[in-house]
């Protein structure tokens, strides 16, 4: 069985480390799928869900992590996700994300300076991606 090591790291901590058969994540130019032996690659990643198919191949054992953007490094036997912010799928809270989205929308309505608007719009995009990841995780078969 072809597997590889994957590490998902945020600025605060190691979120996930283990052997995987497949990883899917949101690349800058679209969805990326990584298998063992993949061509070396370094690219930026967009906010969204990282799906890790564990080495045992059990669909019920897939690991989900939300990332708020970052860098992906792929080597033939090792994948590293360096995320600005990363949250384990089981720790995602839809109500909290909805409240943060509402606050960000209010901040956007009151933002005057271009820099403030850009910051709030980045936050809005990240929160929209987080909510999409929560819904995707909630609707997956168990």
Note down, in words, how this protein is organized.
This protein has helices at residues 94-110, 114-138; strands at residues 4-9, 14-27, 30-35, 41-54, 63-75, 78-83, 86-88. It has a 5-stranded mixed barrel. Strand 1 (4-9) and strand 2 form a beta hairpin. The radius of gyration is 16 Å and the shape is globular. By secondary structure, the chain is α+β, with helices and mostly antiparallel strands.
Write the layout of secondary structure elements.
Blueprint: E1 4-9, E2 14-27, E3 30-35, E4 41-54, E5 63-75, E6 78-83, E7 86-88, H1 94-110, H2 114-138
Parallel strand pairs: 1-6
Antiparallel strand pairs: 1-2, 2-3, 2-4, 4-5, 5-6, 5-7
Helix pairs in contact: 1-2
Q: Which parts are unreliable, with pLDDT below 50 for 5 consecutive residues or more?
A: none
Average pLDDT number: 84
Which strand order does the major sheet show? 1-2-4-5-6
- Taken as a percent bin, the fraction of beta residues is 35-45%
Briefly note the structural class of the backbone: alpha+beta
Give the distance, in angstroms, between the N- and C-terminal Cα atoms: 24 Å
The amount of helix comes to 25-40%
- Total helices: the number is 2
Overall geometry: globular
Q: How many strands, what sense, and barrel or not for the largest sheet?
A: 5 strands, mixed, barrel
Estimated radius of gyration: 16 Å
Helix-strand string: EEEEEEEHH
